[in-house]
């Protein structure tokens, strides 16, 4: 081989070997593209939680000195929640002498990657994420004892405690709720004022009246996105028959019930009066939320209180948000005391060698000043019932949550059958857009569920 | 050169082992899993519940699953004709010597390089938007108001919106493959044909097309592989939960494997997801066999 060719080929081989070795080296966890932003080096899975590292940041005299916790979070490090949690964790480390390896995995990283990581013996001590962690089975521990030791339960909304215990067949608590949200109608208070509506609707008649007043004042009363199309109809139907019956309707195809037709007729009525935005039939999320609601073109939107945080960069700080629970309907069996409430939650894994330390961290994040910060920065509801400082934009949700005595399933139970949800979404969008009648809606759904 | 058996084994062994572990083992395990009901994908084998062919039977009876395959077939056939046809046309035009050939090749290939998430966001939030979107403004400017009023992302049109966006992004990739295939054809044939009086169209039909048979087969197989993995575009056009007009088998598999959103009871089944995967694999094998039978390119030498 000519000399130059020899050296070139040698250099390329060297580069190849180096890249292979580099690729084998720093792999931090078993899942795909976890997001950037890990605090102390994400090693590849140590199996002992307590290490004898020399006193991390504080001089080794704190309550949990020498304890190492691996915390997987479903937030991104750049989200408001992620930023607040990062600071809170640093303060926790300084106060207690523990060392917390905080890794931001994102929603997918937890949903798709956490269980395989745990099953592959990777060390994860605590994590957060969507509520209902019942599929984790025996990978997470019961928190009843820890809660009793620290007298934790009294400061959390009891409805949420009931909800989170209901996920588990033994009725025990395996997850600590936070970042609560409620579902109902979010509305633009400026538009309501200008249209002369001084009270949030309580009954269906109030609601239709409000829509008419808004239309007369030249505003578009309602819009939605495909992702949230089920919320209004589902809650309406749940007012008529309760969420357990709604689940039966979607799972067993009982679309010929008279209440289904009645609910469909109510929405057909709204559509025929022109209360929905003209583009509602084609809104792929987040089109309706971002380009219609947040920009101040439409007055009301049926979704959860998290919308306020999600649209804050578009609405700006001066947007006056209002909230009311789904109105009561004629011949309904429940009223505004039945509400869809959900939450994110923390859980501690079986692998955690020091659950007290993990619980102390969870307590720090969900009580007192850090709970307030989290609520304010992410425009969410505080986990601690004693925290009076609800974000101003969500003040109107407070009375509904405090008076809630019955919890609805998500969308009143209407999304309980994922196999029928696509067809349901399609037909609901048509109903809202006024391109199908209530009878057609019922017959389409009957046809779709025949199998 | 003397054949040294131990050397042969030593060099072949690492690659073979890697292949067995990363390719063969997952396939075998997936096929095996498809006969069970399994909640979490990494559950230990003692938690698996034997189901026989029940997974396959219930899948084939499920109307949403059937809809996903119908969508896949439509994307494969109609999208295939559009993508392969337009990319071939562009390749032929480019090879016939337009000016700025390098620029056009790069420009047409550019959508393929940009992430699907960015592209889909552009299509959904800008081009197809019914209030201020590109298509609406374009048709309004031409006073074609009925066309301007089309709700591109509404139920009737959503599938076509998806198909157009996807094909737009894929044309560049196949065009480059056609271009490389055309470059292999000697220029003498075209010169001889031109002297004999054949025009461009005749040259295309009688020289280019027949000599591209092998490339054609390659492209069909590559197209079927990328179509069977159709996932991101469908998820972007139907975020949060699937739509009957955009669902494809892989989206269905994802929802079964990790649980659909907004369902209060967590329902995950890795066994059914494995069965979907097996069916997708069989789809590709089927296409491969059919294409190999129909298109034989070993009778031509040039």
Provide a short characterization of the protein structure.
Chain A is α/β, with parallel strands linked by helices and 451 residues long.
Question: How would you characterize this protein structure?
Answer:
The complex is a heterodimer of chains A (451) and B (302). Chain A folds into two domains: 68-181 and 343-394, Periplasmic binding protein-like II (D-Maltodextrin-Binding Protein, domain 2, 3-Layer(aba) Sandwich); 183-341 and 398-448, D-Maltodextrin-Binding Protein, domain 2 (3-Layer(aba) Sandwich). Chain A is built from 18 helices and nine strands. In chain A, strands 1, 2, 3, 4, 5, 6, 7, 8 and 9 form a nine-stranded mixed β-sheet that branches. With 451 residues, chain A is of the alpha/beta class. The radius of gyration of chain A is 25 Å and the shape is globular. Residues 26-59 of chain A have low confidence and may be disordered. The longest helix of chain A has 23 residues, at 3-25. With 302 residues, chain B is mainly α. Chain B has a single domain, classed as MetI-like (MetI-like fold, Orthogonal Bundle). In chain B, 70% of the residues lie in helices and 1% in strands. Chain B has a two-stranded antiparallel sheet. In chain B, helix 13 runs antiparallel to helix 14 (270-294). The longest helix of chain B has 33 residues, at 63-95. Chain B is flat, with a radius of gyration of 24 Å. The model of chain B has no long low-confidence stretch (mean pLDDT 91).
